[in-house]
Amino acid sequence: MSEQAVVAQESAQPKEYTWGTGRRKSSVARVRLMRGTGKILVNGREMEVFFTEDKDRQKVRAPFTATKTLGIYDCIADAKGGGFTGQAGSVSLGIARALVKLDEANLPALREAGLLTRDSRMKERKKYGLHGARRGTQFSKR
Q1: If we measure between CA atoms, which residue out of 28, 9, 6, 8 comes closest to residue 19?
Q2: Separation between Cα atoms, residue 5 and residue 57, nearest integer Å
Q3: Contact at 8 Å (CB) between 75 and 94?
Q4: Phi, psi values for residue 42, rounded to 5°
Q5: Number of other CB atoms surrounding residue 93 within 10 Å
Q6: Using N-to-C axis directions, what is the helix angle for 84-102 and 54-67, rounded to 10°?
Q7: DSSP states of 20-69
């Protein structure tokens, strides 16, 4: 078999993905991990382009840093809902869950870094008769 035929045959095989789902506030991220060069795509764009703030980029890279796998896996994330910070948190949780699925040895490092715990804080709903969740009307003496 020629070298070109081997390359064509390898590219025809479907890539092996490992899935992870992450949630934070009102955003949900579906994350796919596969062996690669460390490229991270969020909603079809490079992570550096999608997340403009450095804290959000660090949050997304945190699971890879904790498990010392930065540059080993490619990540494709689809984040919906919420804002940028919520989406960064949900992508981070999705990556952490996918890394645990790939290798159980990653579990202690991710658990110790607090990356497998879902941040359950949500926005409190507005109540009837109030301006917001808790803010009432301004008191008027007359």
Answers
A1: 28
A2: 40
A3: no
A4: -125, 120
A5: 25
A6: 10
A7: EEEEETTEEEEEEEEESS--EEETTEEHHHH--SHHHHHHHHHHHHHHT-
pTM recorded for the entire structure: 0.84
Bridge partners of 74? Answer: 34
- Max Cα–Cα distance, the chain, nearest Å: 93
Question: Which residues, given as ranges, of the chain have pLDDT below 50?
Answer: 1, 5-8
Residue with tokens 């930065």: 70
**Domains along the sequence of the chain with CATH:** 14-112 (3.30.230.10)
Mean pLDDT of all residues belonging to the chain: 90
Q: What's the pLDDT at 6? A: 45
User: What distance in Å separates the CA atoms of residue 50 and residue 79, rounded to the nearest whole number?
Assistant: 11
Q: Which residues pair with 75 in a beta bridge?
A: 33, 40
CA dihedral 45, 51, 52, 54 (to 10 degrees): -130
